[in-house]
Amino acid sequence: MFDLKQAIEKANHVTFLTGAGVSVPSGIPDYRSKNGLYAGHQNPEYLLSQDNLRDHPEDFYKFVKASMYYPDAKPNVIHEKMAAISNEKGTIVTQNVDGLHAKAGAKHVVEFHGNLYRIYCQKCHQTFNYQQYLQSDRHEKDGGILRPDIVLYGEALPEQAISQAVSAVGEADLIIICGTSFQVAPFSMLVNYAQPNTQIVAINEQRLRLPFKFEMIQADAQQVFQAL
Ligand SMILES: [Zn+2]
């Protein structure tokens, strides 16, 4: 059987590519599963789109405020072990917008889709804290609409996040995919920047089908990280 612990010990640079599954044990629902964020919504991707924010800012705000903020969520063992490993020799590139990798103490984190807890006014770009946003989505001073600094459907990814993610993948001799089915581009395209000899491992309860060579660890990620 593949020995993850040994692979991590031998590696010079470990890059983690993480998704919603990593935060589920912290009580944050994922997007697409039965009880996920999108459950019961006809067109959930529209709710989180640039068009919805522009055309129906009150619907956007209502959905985000009611469904996405979990300020009391705590990092779990996956976040903690990843933080320790990446602080020593690696990077975490995450699709998650919950900030839990940083909360676990990880210093080398690329938040590919931004962070829900960073808020800014679309009109004047002043920043706010999330508590202010949860009170109101209007900037009283100029009437601007506040929004979280996350990448919405229809929006481009920040260039800095792309370049940091691409270099983290290019530097890695071990890539660990965790908490994601790794089907959604452009995140899933990041492996194209890996060196040819870089080992790729995926940890997931369901077997993944991916268009490249990788080691599948079919298990509960919490148990896998607990054992490291
Ligand atoms: Zn403003």
UniProtKB/TrEMBL annotation:
Alphabetic keyword roster: NAD, Transferase
Entry EC number(s): 2.3.1.286
Domain Deacetylase sirtuin-type: 1-228
Gene3D superfamilies on file: SIR2/SIRT2 'Small Domain, TPP-binding domain
Domain of life the protein comes from: Bacteria
One Pfam match: SIR2
Listed transmembrane segments: none
Keyword set includes Ligase: no
UniProt enzyme class: transferase
PROSITE patterns for the chain: SIRTUIN
Protein name: protein acetyllysine N-acetyltransferase
Organism: Loigolactobacillus rennini DSM 20253
